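Section 3.1: Structural characterization of target chains.
Under the original work plan, the team committed to producing a structural model for every single-chain target entering the pipeline before any wet-lab resources were allocated. The record below documents one such target. The sequence was received from the expression subgroup and is listed exactly as submitted; it comprises 318 residues.
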Amino acid sequence: MTFAATIRSDAVRQAADAWRRQTSLRRFYTALGIGSLLVAMCTAIWFADEANAGHFFDRLPHILDFLSWLVPKDWNDVWRALFDIASPHDKGSQEFNFPLGRVYLWGGFYLPEYFELMLTTLNVALVSTFIGFVFAVPFSFIAARNLTPSPVLRLVVKRFMELLRAFPEIVIAGLFAAILSTGPVAAIIAIGLHSIGALGKLFYEINENIDMRAEEGLRAVGANWFERVRFAGLPQVLPNFMSYTLLRIEINVRISTIIGAVGGGGIGEELKLSISRGFGAKTLALVLLLFTTIFLVDQFSASLRRKLVGEQAFMMGA
């Protein structure tokens, strides 16, 4: 009995020693990893500061000076700029020429300039997302391992979608702007191509997790590939497809604003000009409209996604 207890005690002691060694080793590697990340981050920050023309940290205290330029003398000018109402401070300069941007629809009824630019940005986002959805759906079924037996075909489609999403939208927009000139068309093509790659990846990962029993039943009765995809695959994944597409619309609204700042049209271009010229009332009006629009788009798409995939799936509660 004593011998057995001694053996058991030695085993427990050896296990405790092994656990302590393993814990110490894990802590060492954790500290080494965190230290390496801190060194890399500090080095990157130093390099970025040295590469910056004005030395970022040297100019950082002056950021409040820039913000002070954007504070309007009369806060009512923000609303006047938003709705193209004449300002009493207008002396012929572009800073207060709010009524000149009106888009007259009929008679004396007009659409404020910034609302028209926001509609352009929304149209770019919606059209490019539609393009992405239309092409991503068939590509996703071809790329799915469980639906397409040909490995070569799957490989080609996957690499093609990776190529489309490998380059940032702003780079693609710059390329097409050089070819087609600046404007919304170049932005639509750039965002649409990137959306094909991004949505295609999300979609084919969904396709690879569908219930294959319906597909096997259709295969057994002689259905071809298109019929199996249409009647067995698509009904299962369509709600999730729509959910990801709505999420992509939110992303594309922001992206179209950024691309607009480099010549893609819409509200982004006007926002860039307003900031660069120090027009405080116009800048704040644009930021307010942009924030409100993105908030409403987010809330609307989130509500639709809840209805499509269910509250539990949306909240990750499943």
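The longest helix spans residues 2-51.
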